[in-house]
Specification:
Shape of chain B: globular
CATH superfamily of chain B: Thiamin diphosphate (ThDP)-binding fold, Pyr/PP domains
CATH class of the largest domain in chain A: Alpha Beta
Number of strands of chain B: 7
Radius of gyration of chain B: 19 Å
Order of helices and strands of chain B: HHEHHHEHEEEHHEHEHHH
Number of strands of chain A: 12
Low-confidence stretches of chain A: none
Largest sheet of chain B: 5 strands, parallel
Number of domains of chain B: 1
Number of domains of chain A: 2
Bound molecules: thiamine diphosphate, magnesium ion
Number of helices of chain B: 12
Shape of chain A: globular
Strand order of the largest sheet of chain A: 2-1-3-4-6-5-10
Structural class of chain A: alpha/beta
Helix content of chain B: 40-55%
Strand content of chain A: 15-25%
Oligomer: heterotetramer
Distance between the termini of chain A: 51 Å
Largest sheet of chain A: 7 strands, mixed
CATH topology of chain B: Rossmann fold
CATH architecture of chain B: 3-Layer(aba) Sandwich
CATH topology of the largest domain in chain A: Rossmann fold
Low-confidence stretches of chain B: none
Chain lengths: 344, 327, 344, 327
């Protein structure tokens, strides 16, 4: 008996890995670079190969399939190899370059913000820059202030960069494929906690794109709109589940792209529900959450029954100590409190 | 005479001489435009013409050059159209970059000029990636990056040299040591005996070249390009040269350097020494030299006319080219 | 005859210079570092000294007064010398370090965001970090995409950093002195256009502080609140002058500090005027303008007669060509259009 | 016997031995805590004890040390309290950093430990500024920065070496070359014959040291500290060492390196070779060694008890220490 709804479950890690494998098979211009993306570099002759596979094992197995020419371990020189990604993207390759954690952006930010982001504009459009940067982010794993930031907000600030934040294995695969095929530089932000969560979502085997710049409605609702970004979509959805038990119907928007941002989907929802809670793990000041709050206030002012509310961490670095870090994070409880606030 | 005594064919000698003269005339004109307030903050390459000319004489259109804030000479040496360049300086729609980049960002991917760059040291890793691209795509293209003595103190150089070293990339690092970064003398800012010496820490062949001699630059550049094309890895060239003008036109260089030093370098001017060479070796006669000079001047006059008469970009251009598809 | 209102006019450049001189005289721990802050380094013996004075001449004369030990030209190694500023600040000095233009932040961002911003927090408060970074910013001078950014928004994003944006010679001197005396890292953003504008404001000769974290009301008004930041305060005030001719009374808030931000002054004003236009030269996404718009929407929702409006450049890099750059900038006309929009 | 044959006084020898043993016991215990899930992602320094111990033997409390993600050994060698350190690992309010920093950020300014640092290469410029500070304030304090072979490929090292070179700063660059950055072998990632060779490009005295020998580290560290204190500028030390465990505890090192290599280094273990030295030279008798070992273990047991029994920070701590005055 054939079930029409058979689901193919992959973990977030497997989904990214599959996307990379499929795109590398499809297009010889796709290469992967980063620290320990393969592991044990240069020791193939000793039978040592693929001994690491990236910090999250996202790139495991690629070197055995595609060889050391296209899957390159790099020295710890982010400005060097991300800059190299820019040059390679400008001259015929489609590099996927890994910045291990987004907190390290500061050692290579110039390559991203001054070269990748601006080259097309500065050159009068006479260049395409199909570069994908993938990076890990997120708190909750006790790795303290320099390894736990979220930071998509600062990349969103820069014109010329696209930013995508998958929220589960399905969107991870689709957005990774779209990022690779996109002719502009795209940063893909992988939340580390999502890698540990088993999500019961169907991930088609064939390659598919998820459109950059489009949000999706993860859960429909009438009373309030919750906007989540990556991991906080998961939090918002959990909150929505609990709220449903209390008879509150929350719509959950999964933002997925921070730049370009799908303003219509947000506005259309808020115009219906007339209330919005934005859930964002990034620092609160000058954040994507601020942007969405401002967007809604400016463009849906007459529809709002209550002021927008943001659920961000406080304006502090990420603390190490577990109880403090737990307080730091957005949680379903905090979302529910915010919903109660806007429900009046 | 197809080839001169030093083994450089006549066409190449002529091309090198002519290109240096065009650069000089172009830069004189751009300074006039700047002085007239038609552009701001342009960095003159006068005095440094020989460096890119000697190296680029070995390059094909599909090889790549990457530059700095001071890159008009790199662009002309790589074969860019000076009409479009002058139009770019004036922010016109007919410019190499449609007027959106300006003096510090001139680029023309079809000619292999992957851009001047306003951030000191920023293009060095990019050039390394261009070399990587050639290697992965299996071509014999070469990537040349020019940068200043000041840029040699940016960490990007170190990272890029290491990458080019371990991956044996076809990258040529050309440091135009013109002795100053703005007003800062190289002997103050650079620890160690030379900039070239640093390349040794990366197992890279390195050489100090007389950047005032286009013939020497040609010879050394040729070796480096041959090495890169053959897949034998990167080369570091420290070209000792001098910028005759101030850093960006509004500063008085004698506030931080001496007349004697200026005189020393101007006496070894790359163009006048080349004229002597061409005459002494009967490559060209005086009237042929004059004809080349006159033609160069006429080209620059024409470029200026072209630029002046070109329109500014229309307003819609403000929001195009941000992404492939935006506005 | 003594005039009680005698004004002492200084240019913006002179005001910063005077602040530096006075603080260096007061406290031997204050040192200044940056590219060409003196000029012609190492040639004192040839009679060459102070031949440059910084890109804007803000530091002119300091080396002759305080010597090469305390006024240091640096190689072009921003990560190196701004990181050195962090180390020096942690061990007894009060360094003022110049990042020539904020667009170059990307080569040294790690030192600012991971070390300067986080050390106090990560170390459990057992350190102070009296570091001042001063940097130039702003479009309008035809220096194209890599030399014309504003970017205070991304530093505002990071907890642990303070940000101040003077709007005239008076606030420049006071904020520079406050920044130097502050025990936290402070970034002072100098708009290049303000240096060319002659402002008829009194700059007291004696050293004085302008409090970090405080905005000021530059012009009182009842009909609408305009918020400006540095140069855009000047633009907003020009607009207010023109609006006054049309009988519209605009209040102008001069933000001055982006972090901490003086939320009270903004909210108090908007609660009175019930309308707000925010004028900001930084990129629009995840900007200080977004933050203020969100703040007002969230905290003064019930007072608002119209949605907040932001006047930012479009979401593009800064173009080179003059007519395009002119279109890019916030102008009094654009502010007036926005005011007309909120006035309905 | 006040001074041994090699000119190191007995107290110093004892201090060095004892400190290495405490580090080893501390690291064994922190691994147990990590395996028990009480902390995450800690980078063990087992095998590398001799490097900071030999160098820090020459330092005063008011000298400075800066470290990396793998810095427990630096902290202990610089005299930090292991009770507070263990409490920090467990995120307790009694920790060196009140529990807010954790394993990668241990610092104690009073002891001159200016912090471990989680960003590879990030502390190298900071250390340079510490040296600058000492120089400007006119003290003879010394700044020592430890970093890995992987960190040697960050541009910050290049920039910092240049700054320390031109300003003759009292900075000691100690590269702990443990042959791997995560799984990446140093011979793959580093172009050029050695890391130490790079310092030559900056005119800096540099030396390759046997990082498994605390006596050699002591000798070489002593020269470097003396040079720095005397105002004679920076030194670069490449200490060849080995980490016995995986990069952060969860990886299997034999996936990227060989048993033979591990055996080679473990046979030259810094602690066991020191034991042999102390016994052979009659510095200590076997029972004295055992007493030191037992005391070290007891200290670590006590540190663990202290840490376990200490309270977590209270909730308000989340928002303190962001600024001098915030919440
Ligand atoms: C990262 C960065 N820092 C500072 C500057 C400002 N700046 C522009 S050119 C220049 C001097 C560059 O010197 P050098 O590399 O020797 O090149 P030259 O001007 O002599 O050609 C400086 C400091 C910049 N553009 N980018
Ligand atoms: C800038 C930066 N890039 C990458 C990392 C991730 N990372 C942490 S430790 C490490 C390896 C460091 O190797 P090495 O410097 O040799 O030190 P070791 O771990 O061997 O002590 C890497 C890549 C980081 N923390 N910071
Ligand atoms: Mg120079
Ligand atoms: Mg290592």
């Amino acid at each position: 008996m054939v079930t029409e709804t058979a689901t193919r479950n992959l973990s977030y890690i497997q989904a990214i890995n599959e996307a990379l494998r499929q795109e590398m098979s499809r297009d010889p211009a796709v290469i992967v670079m980063g620290e320990d993306v393969a592991g044990g570099a240069g020791r193939e002759d000793q039978g040592i190969i693929d001994s690491w596979g990236g910090p999250m094992r996202l790139t495991k197995g690629l070197i055995t399939e595609f060889g050391a020419d296209r899957v390159r371990d790099t020295p710890i020189s982010e400005a060097g190899f991300i800059g190299a990604g820019v040059g390679a993207a400008a001259t015929g390759l489609r590099p996927v370059v890994e910045l291990m954690y987004v907190s390290f952006f500061g050692v290579c930010a110039d390559q991203i913000t001054n070269n990748a982001a601006k080259m097309r504009y500065m050159f009068g459009g006479k260049i395409t820059l199909p570069l994908t940067i993938m990076t890990g982010m997120g708190a909750g794993l006790n790795t303290a202030a320099q390894h736990s930031e979220t930071l998509y907000s600062i990349f969103t600030h820069f014109p010329g960069l696209k930013g995508v934040v998958p929220s589960d294995p399905y969107t991870a695969k689709g957005l990774m494929i779209s990022a690779i095929r996109d002719d502009d530089p795209v940063i893909l932000f992988n939340n580390r906690q999502l890698m540990g969560i088993s999500a019961n979502v169907h991930v088609p085997e064939e390659a598919y794109e998820f459109p950059i710049g489009k949000a999706r409605i993860l859960r429909e609702g009438d009373d309030v709109t919750l906007v989540g970004i990556g991991y906080t979509t998961y939090i918002a959805d959990q909150a929505a589940g609990l709220l449903a038990d209390d008879g509150i119907s929350a719509e959950v928007i999964d933002l997925l792209s921070t730049s370009p941002m799908d303003e219509e989907t947000i506005l259309e929802s808020v115009q219906r529900t007339r209330k919005v809670v934005i859930v964002d793990e990034d620092y609160p000041r000058c954040s994507v959450a601020s942007d969405i709050s401002a967007l809604v206030a400016e463009q849906a002012f007459d529809y709002l029954d209550a002021p927008p509310v943001r659920v961000n961490p406080p304006h502090t670095s990420v603390p190490y100590s577990r109880p403090l870090e737990a307080l730091y994070m957005p949680t379903p409880d905090k979302v529910i409190d915010a919903v109660n606030e806007v429900m009046g | 005479m197809a080839t001169t005594t030093i083994g450089i064919d006549r066409d190449t000698l002529l091309w090198m001489y002519k290109t240096m003269v065009i650069i000089r005339r172009f830069e004189e004109q751009s300074k006039r435009e700047a002085d007239a307030g038609k552009l701001r903050g342009m960095h003159s390459s006068i005095g440094q013409e020989a460096v890119p000319v000697g190296v680029c004489a070995h390059l094909r259109d599909d090889d790549y050059v990457l530059g700095t804030h001071r890159s008009h000479h790199h662009c002309i040496a790589k074969g860019l159209d000076i009409n479009q360049m002058m139009a770019e300086l004036l922010g016109k729609s007919t410019g190499t970059n449609k007027g959106k980049g300006g003096t510090m960002h001139i680029a023309d991917i079809d000619k292999g000029m992957l851009g001047a760059n306003g951030v000191v040291g920023s293009n060095i890793p990019v050039a390394t990636g261009v070399g990587l691209s050639a290697k992965v795509r299996g071509t014999d293209q070469v990537s040349v990056v020019f940068f200043g003595d000041g840029a040699a103190n940016q960490g990007t150089l170190h990272e890029a040299m290491n990458l080019a070293g371990i991956w044996k990339l076809p990258v040529i690092f050309v440091c135009e040591n013109n002795r100053y970064a703005e007003s800062t003398p190289v002997e103050y800012s650079v620890a160690g005996e030379s900039i070239a010496a640093r390349a040794e820490g990366y197992d890279m062949p390195s050489v100090i070249a007389d950047g005032q001699s286009v013939l020497e630059m040609y010879e050394i550049g040729g070796e480096a390009v041959a090495r890169a094309r053959a897949g034998d890895g990167p080369t570091f060239i420290e070209a000792q040269t001098y910028r005759y003008h101030g850093h960006f036109g509004a500063d008085d260089p004698l506030a931080y350097r001496t007349q004697e030093e200026e005189d020393y370098y101007e006496a070894r001017d790359c163009i006048s020494t080349m004229v002597s060479y061409l005459l002494e070796n009967d490559v060209l006669a005086q009237d042929e030299i004059e004809a080349i000079d006159a033609a160069a001047l006429a080209d620059v006059v024409e470029a200026t006319r072209f630029a002046d008469e070109s329109p500014f970009p229309n307003d819609g251009e403000l929001t195009t080219d941000v992404y492939i598809s935006y506005a």
